[in-house]
What does this fold into?
Amino acid sequence: MKTPIPTAPERKNAPHERLKAWQACYELTMAVFRASITWSNPELDPHEDLEDDFGGPDGEGMSRDARSYAQAATVALMTGVREEDIQDFWRCCEDASASLARLASELLISRDMNLIGPRTYGELEALRDHAARLTWGLSASLKKKMAAQNGKTLRSGKKTGGSR
It folds into this structure.
């Protein structure tokens, strides 16, 4: 009998587990791992090695890359929340956003190569989009805090106080 894996909202012991962006990235990562188990194209010759240095176009390379990008976003937020400097946390959020963008590309390619169906693509893309929006929101919030610390306004870029 398998023990169910607790979802992110069920446990909130570590600081990163309280971040909604991390929770969304974790949910996405778990969904990508579950879905990628079946990513393979039965029409491909199993004896033909189609994988190149970029990890594709076979299902195994694509699924490995997708798992890596999803997990990288989760890890970046885990790392960022532990940073003492807001700018370092912001950089980690930017890294997470970049990983989510790479995952978007990987999902599109996997869909267009018929490695995943439209339904699976839609489900994963919806989770990815939700995680990306929350991560972007966290990043924007941190950027505002950095601007306030530096005495700048984000809209005009003009100094509101302090010295440069």
The helical segments are 20-36, 59-81, 86-112, 118-150. The radius of gyration is 19 Å. Residues 118-150 form the longest helix (33 residues). Residues 152 and 160 are 5 Å apart (CA to CA).
